[in-house]
């Protein structure tokens, strides 16, 4: 089996079944690799407080933490550890005027969908540099915050019923134009239930942290692998949030999808299924257990 010097992975649905699930098993699988000097990188749309209850560092020694990184908030925050404590070493956080422009753009999407198509949405504004636009406000994921297979078909039916014939591509274009109207460049992604509109995405996390690994440890993209559960295509040419870890800097790495959801993936992604158990077994195999 190929041994990797850097392992990038999503948290919810890949390392743990949900953000409220116990993190002990994931931490145990990570610990041995960190002790060996393998660099582990959690790339997630959530906040540090939602990773192992905000206590991730308590599972590891200071030496182990020297090889642990987190890219969170859709590109907003990049963490490393100094003296055993999480420190943001790079971010994409706008000033107040910038965040208000993002809010205005999200409301512009909401208004366009309601005025032109009669589609009601909810907006979550309290995010660092983006907004979550709930396209299926009547559907509650509960603790299972990752994309469910049935949601793809449900969203397509909703869009079609409201006359949005261009599907997700049309939604992303609406978001782009809303940002343009507010004087900002919007990066929009969709996991079926949520359209997320902001100024960064997981590609910013992946590139920023890979640059840091290259600077500190001379690690190249081809020495890394990237794991997630949301690579599947939502429609032609539009893929799930984990696909944004595929960039010009990372494209020579290996990409693995643990989801069993049917559908096309980017051509360089291997669908292996198995969910959280498969990913944690991979970590154990990497450390020789």
Short description:
The protein has helices at 24-35, 62-65, 96-117, 149-161, 167-181, 202-217, 275-286; strands at 6-9, 39-44, 68-72, 77-82, 85-91, 122-124, 130-134, 187-190, 194-198, 224-228, 233-235, 238-239, 254-257, 269-271. With 289 residues, the chain is α/β, with parallel strands linked by helices. The protein is globular.
Word description of this protein:
The chain has 289 residues and is an alpha/beta fold. It has 2 domains: 6-92 and 201-286, Rossmann fold (3-Layer(aba) Sandwich), CATH 3.40.50.1000; 96-198, Hypothetical Protein, Haloacid Dehalogenase-like Hydrolase, Chain: A, domain 2 (2-Layer Sandwich), CATH 3.30.1240. It is 33% helix and 21% strand. It is built from 7 helices and 14 strands. The strands form 3 sheets. Strands 5-4-3-2-1-10-13-14 form an 8-stranded mixed beta sheet, with helices on both faces. A 4-stranded antiparallel beta sheet has the order 6-7-9-8, with helices on one face. Helix 3 (96-117) packs across helix 5 (167-181).
Write the layout of secondary structure elements.
Elements: E1 6-9, H1 24-35, E2 39-44, H2 62-65, E3 68-72, E4 77-82, E5 85-91, H3 96-117, E6 122-124, E7 130-134, H4 149-161, H5 167-181, E8 187-190, E9 194-198, H6 202-217, E10 224-228, E11 233-235, E12 238-239, E13 254-257, E14 269-271, H7 275-286
Parallel strand pairs: 1-2, 1-10, 2-3, 10-13, 13-14
Antiparallel strand pairs: 3-4, 4-5, 6-7, 7-9, 8-9, 11-12
Helix pairs in contact: 1-7, 3-5
């Amino acid at each position: 089996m190929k041994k990797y010097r850097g392992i990038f992975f999503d948290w919810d649905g890949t390392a743990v079944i949900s953000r409220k699930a116990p993190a002990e098993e994931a931490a145990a699988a990570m610990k041995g690799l960190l002790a060996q000097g393998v660099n582990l990188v959690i790339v997630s749309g959530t906040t540090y407080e939602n990773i192992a209850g905000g206590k991730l560092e308590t599972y590891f020694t200071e030496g182990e933490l020297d090889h642990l990184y987190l890219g969170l908030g859709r590109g907003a925050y990049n963490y490393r550890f100094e003296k055993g404590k999480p420190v943001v070493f790079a971010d994409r956080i706008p000033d107040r005027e910038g965040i208000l422009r993002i809010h205005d753009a999200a409301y512009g999407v909401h208004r366009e969908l309601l005025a032109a198509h009669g589609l009601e949405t909810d907006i979550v504004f309290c995010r660092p540099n983006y907004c979550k636009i709930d396209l299926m406000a009547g559907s509650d994921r509960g603790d299972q915050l990752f994309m469910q297979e049935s949601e793809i078909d449900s969203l397509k039916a909703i869009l079609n019923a409201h006359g949005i014939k261009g599907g997700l591509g049309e939604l992303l274009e609406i978001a782009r134009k809303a940002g343009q109207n507010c004087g900002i460049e919007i990066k929009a992604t969709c996991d079926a239930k949520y359209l997320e509109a902001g100024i960064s995405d997981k590609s910013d996390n992946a590139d920023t942290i890979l640059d840091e690994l290259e600077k500190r440890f001379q690690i190249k993209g081809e020495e890394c692998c990237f794991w997630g559960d949301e690579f599947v295509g939502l429609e032609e040419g539009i893929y799930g949030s984990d696909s944004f870890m595929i960039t010009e800097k990372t494209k020579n790495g290996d990409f693995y999808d643990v989801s069993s959801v049917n559908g096309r993936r980017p051509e360089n992604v291997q669908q292996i299924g198995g969910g959280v158990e498969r990913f944690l077994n991979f970590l154990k195999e990497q450390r020789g257990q």
